[in-house]
Amino acid sequence: MSNIENKHNANLNRDLFAISLDPAGNTSLQAQLLEALRAIIVTSQNLTGARLPASRILAAELSISRTTVQVVYDQMISEGYLVTRRGSGTYVAHDITHLRSPTPQARPARPVLKPWQPFQTGLPDQSLLPYQTWARQLERAWRTPEPDLLMRPDPLGWYPLREAIADHLAAWRNLHCDPEQVFITSGAWEALEGIFCGLVGSGKTVAVEDPCWPKTHDILRVTGCKIHAVRIDAEGLDAGKIPDDVSAVIVTPSRHYPTGLNLPLSRRTALLDWAKRTGALVIEDDYDSEFRYRGQPLPSLSGLDGRANTIYLGSFSKLVSPALRIGYLVVPIHLLDQIRRHLGRVGPRASLIPQPALATFMQSGEFAIHLRRMRRTYARRQSHLLDALQPVSDLLDLQPDPSGMHLCLSLKPQLARRVSDQEICRRAKKIGLHVGALSDHCVLPDKMQGLLLGYAAFDEQALSEAADRFANLLRSV
Amino acid sequence: MSNIENKHNANLNRDLFAISLDPAGNTSLQAQLLEALRAIIVTSQNLTGARLPASRILAAELSISRTTVQVVYDQMISEGYLVTRRGSGTYVAHDITHLRSPTPQARPARPVLKPWQPFQTGLPDQSLLPYQTWARQLERAWRTPEPDLLMRPDPLGWYPLREAIADHLAAWRNLHCDPEQVFITSGAWEALEGIFCGLVGSGKTVAVEDPCWPKTHDILRVTGCKIHAVRIDAEGLDAGKIPDDVSAVIVTPSRHYPTGLNLPLSRRTALLDWAKRTGALVIEDDYDSEFRYRGQPLPSLSGLDGRANTIYLGSFSKLVSPALRIGYLVVPIHLLDQIRRHLGRVGPRASLIPQPALATFMQSGEFAIHLRRMRRTYARRQSHLLDALQPVSDLLDLQPDPSGMHLCLSLKPQLARRVSDQEICRRAKKIGLHVGALSDHCVLPDKMQGLLLGYAAFDEQALSEAADRFANLLRSV
Question: What is stated as this protein's family in its record (chains A, B) (predicted)?
C-alpha cells in the first residue's frame, strides 16, 4: 500500500470512529450512520481510494449491529460513493466530484522558520546534542512508564529530575541543596513570575541591574511589581546603591547579563550582608555559567549564602536545548511552604514528557560529557571570532571573555565618536547580521554603549564569513 | 560490571569532566588537578570502586598533557586515594573513610505521590494510552530531528501540530479554521492568562458562569481583571443577565463545568448576538466535549459564530494525558496580530519535545482511535457507577449524563434537608473518597448544592467498591 493510501485510510478511520449515534434519536441508527458517512466522504478531500473498515470492525467501534453497517455500505455503493472490489473490501470511489459540495480552499503552505543568523545571542548549537541517546532515553521512559508518571503531574516537577539537578549543582556550582528545594519550571519567565507573585507580591519594589535582560522589566510589569534599576559599575552591582526599601533584587553574579562581568567576592559578600540586614530576597539568575573557559567555574552566590535569603534560577535552554522548556528554582528552606502553595495553585507548566529522559541524561553522566564538549566548542568559536575581528581592532575592544556564549564588545573612541551601538545594529540587520546593542538593555539615562555578538550557535566558517562582512560594515560607517 | 559500579563510574566521570583548569592560575596545572581530584573523591559518597578514565582520555577532556594526569594519578595512589590493578586501570580506593571530611547527611527518601482516589475529577485513565506507539513516535521525532526542531522554538507552537489540531476540530467540533489561528499553550492557565493580558487588558471586567472552574477566579485576579459572576439557570448561561460593559465572557457551552448542562441553540445565538452588539469577546472553554456518549458531539460555539468574536480553548490533558502540558487557543483572524505579539513577548511555555510526536499521533489516526476507545470505556464506567449508586436513589438524583468524565448529582430533599454538599465531602474525605461539592464552585450567594463524582480514571471494580462505601456514608448522615 502506498503512503498516500495509508494516509487516506487513517483519515477515514479517524472520521468514522468519531461518529456518535443516538439509539434514542429521531431517526434510525441506520439513517444516522448513512447521513454521517455521506457527510464524511463529501466534505473530506483526502479519502479517495481509502478502504473502509470491515463491517464487523465498524459495528464494534460504534456499538451497533453488523447488519446495520452492511446495509449502509450497500446503500452507498448503489449511490456511487463507495465501490467494492471482490475479495478485497469496500473503498471510497475515485470519481465522486459530482457528489461533492463546493471545494473548500486548499490549506496554505507551511510558514518557513527564519534560520538563526549570526550573531544572534541566546541559543546553543542544538545540532551537537546527542540525539540518538536523547531519543532512546525518551523512548525508554515512556514505553512502559513508571506508575508515578501516570499520576496527576506534580506541579513541583519530576522528583528524580529534582535529584539530578541537586547533584549537578553540587558538582558544578558548589551549591548544596536538598531535592525538595528544587522546583521545575517551564523557564525563566515562569520562574520569575512565580517568585514575584508567590513570594514578593504585587506592588512591592524589585531592584534590577542596569543593563539587564529586557524581559525582566516585562515580567515585573505583568506581575504588578515596581522596578528600581541600579546602574552597574566596572565591578558589577554595588549593594550600597540599592535602596533599603526594595523587597528583592535580581542579580547575575557569575556572569552579568549581558556584559559578562563577574561579581567579585567583596561585592558578593556586601550584597548578602545587605540582604541579611534589609530582609530582601536575592534572586540569582545563573543562566550559563557552566560555560566557563578559563579558571574554575565560580561558586554560585547561593552556595556562598547557605541560601538563607537567596533563590537560585537555572535553565536547560542554553545547556541542552530551548525545545525542552525546562528550568528550575532552588528555594531556601524557610520559603518552601510559600512557593509550594503558589506552584500548587497555578499548577504544572513544564511538560512531564522530557523530564524522566532529562533525569537519565544527567544521572548517566551524558549531560556532563555534553557540557564539557560544548565548552570546548564554544571556547574555540569565541577565539575564532576574536581572531576574525582582528582587522577592526582599532574600532572594537577585542577582549576575550572567560565564559559565556556571546561577546560584549566596547566601541573604541574612534568608532564611538561616529556612531551609536543602535545605529550599527540597524545597519548590520540590513545585511543579515543580528548584532545586539548594549544600550537596548538599559533603562537609565546615559545608556551604556556596546555590541553583543553571539558565537555559540555558529560554526567557524559561518563566524569567519559574518565577521568579514561585519568588519566591512564598521569600516564604512 | 554491576549497575552500582556503572553508576559510580558515571558519577566520577561527570565530576572529573567538569573540572576547569586555569593555565594562567597561581598554581601549576598539576597542583590544580591534584586538588580538584582530591576534593571530588573526599566529598562524593558514590565513587567507591569507580574506575578512573585512562590518563589519555582525561588529558584530552581537560586539554592538558597526559604526563600531568599520570603524575597526579601516581601521587594520589601513593596517598591512598586511588589503587591500581595491574592491566586493568586505576580505581578509587575502597577504604578512604579516614581521608574523608565528616559525612554529609544521606539524601532523604523520595516522596511518595498520593494515588488518585475515587471520585477525584479531572484526570483521564492514563493507563489506557498506547504507550508503545507514543514512545516510538517520540523516539522517531527526536532521533534525527527535522531542522525546524533545532531552531528557536516558535512561541506559537510546532506548525504540523497546529495543522493536526485544525483537522481534528473540523472533524470533531465542526470548527473550521486555518492552522495559523491555532496557538499552542502549556494549558488552560497560560491560555487564559494570555487572553486576559494580551487581548482583554488589566482593569477590565470579565463575566464568568456561576458555578465555574474555581481557578478562573485565580487567573483573573492575577491578571488584574475584575470579575462579574452570572448565576446559570436550568438552561445554562443567559446572555440577558450579562451587563453590557463587560469586556469578555468565559463560557462552557458544550458541557457546562461542573454541572454538565448543554447550552441550547437559542441561548448560544443570544450569546453571540449579545457579543456582536457589545463588542465583547466570548471565550469558549471546550475542555472535554469529545467524550460524548449519546448523540453527535455538539458543534462548538466558535463554529457557529464563524469565530468573529469567539476564542476557542482546547486541551490534551483530558483527551491524552496531563503529562503533556499541551493545550491550544483558536483565535479569530482579526485578533491574530495582537495575540501573536503577546505570545512573542512572553515566549514559548509548552515544551517542543512532545509536539511532533503528538502531531504524528493525531495525523496517523491513532488519536481518534484512542478517543473512541476512551469514550466507550468512560460510557461504561458512568453507567456502572450509576448502577452501583442505585441503593441510594432515594437520596441522590441519579440522572445519566450524555457526556463528560464526572457526574454532577443533585441531593434529593430527604438528604438536602439533613446535610450540605460540603459536609458530605468532608466526611467522605475521611474515608478516602474525594467527592467535589458544587457549592465550592460558586461565589454568588445561595450557592448551588450538588456532588461531583469523577468516574473516568477508575475501573469498574474500584467504582463498585467506592460506591458501596459512599452509599453507606450517605445512609449514616
Answer: In the C-terminal section; belongs to the class-I pyridoxal-phosphate-dependent aminotransferase family.
The predicted structure's pLDDT at residue A103: 43
CATH number where B435 lies: 3.90.1150.10
Cβ–Cβ contact A159 with B under 8 A: yes
| Residue A296 in grid coordinates | 574554575
For A85-235, where are the alpha helices, taking DSSP H only? 131-143, 159-173, 188-195, 215-222
CA distance A397 to A412: 6
**Residues of chain B neighbouring A349 (CB-CB closer than 8 A):** 186-187, 189-190, 325, 349
**Nearest residue to B201 via CA among B340, B338, B350, B346:** B338
Determine the Cα–Cα distance for residues B20 and B38; give it in Å rounded to an integer.
Answer: 14
Q: Exposure of B419 by Cβ count < 10 A (0-12 exposed, 13-18 middle, 19+ buried)?
A: middle
Of B402, B377, B392, which Cα lies nearest the Cα of B459?
A: B377
The residues, any chain, with a CB within 8 Å of residue A265's CB and separated by 6 or more, are none
pLDDT band at B102 (very low <50, low <70, confident <90, very high): very low
Statement: residue A1 has pLDDT above 60? no
Average pLDDT, chain A: 90
A139 and B136 in contact by Cβ < 8 A? yes
Same domain, A252 and A321: yes
Q: Are A118 and A425 in contact (CB under 8 A)?
A: no
Query: Tens digits of per-residue pLDDT, B38-90?
Result: 878 876 667 778 888 888 888 888 888 888 898 888 878 877 788 888 777 88
Given CA atoms B92, B93, B94, B97 in this order, what sign does their dihedral have? Answer: negative
| Interchain contact, A18 vs B172, CB within 8 Å | yes
Return the closest-CA partner of residue B375 out of B289, B450, B278: B289
Q: Which of A316, A345, A364 is the last residue of a domain?
A: A364
Q: In which band, very low, low, confident or very high, does the pLDDT at B105 lie, cut at 50, 70 and 90? A: low
- Quote the domain boundaries for residue B468: 369-476
In a domain, A134, yes or no: no
Per-residue pLDDT reduced to its tens digit, A268-310:
999 999 999 999 999 999 988 888 887 666 678 988 866 578 9
Can you give the pLDDT at residue B305? Answer: 67
Q: Domain check: are B307 and B198 in the same one?
A: yes
Residues B403 and B328 in one domain: no
Q: Whole-angstrom Cα distance, residue A411 to residue A393?
A: 10
CATH number at residue B73: 1.10.10.10
- In this complex, is the C-beta atom of A3 within 8 Å of any C-beta atom belonging to chain B? no
Assess A101–B contact: CB distance below 8 Å, yes or no: no
Is B297 a member of any domain?
A: yes
pLDDT at A204 > cutoff 50: yes
Asked whether residue A463 is assigned to any structural domain, the reply reads yes
Size of interface A-B (CB pairs under 8 A): 250
Q: Degrees (nearest 5) of the Cα angle B186, B187, B189?
A: 110
Determine whether the interchain pair B138/A139 forms a contact, defined as Cβ–Cβ distance below 8 Å: yes
Does residue B26 surpass a pLDDT of 80? no
pLDDT tens readout for residues A177-196: 999 999 999 999 999 999 99
Alpha-carbon gap: B371 to the closest alpha carbon of chain A (Å): 8
CATH code of the domain covering residue A195: 3.40.640.10
Residues A324 and A181 in one domain: yes
Which of B20, B143, B151 shows the shortest C-beta gap to A132? B143
CA distance B141 to chain A (A): 8
Look up the ipTM and state it. 0.82
Question: For an interface test with A, which of B3, B12, B17, B112 has the most A Cβ atoms less than 10 Å from its Cβ?
Answer: B17
- Count of domains observed in chain A: 3
Is B121 a member of any domain? Answer: no
Pick A270 or B93 by higher pLDDT.
Answer: A270
Question: What pLDDT does A305 receive?
Answer: 67
Tell me the average pLDDT across A163-171: 93
| DSSP secondary structure string for all residues of B409-429 | EPBPHHHHTT--HHHHHHHHH
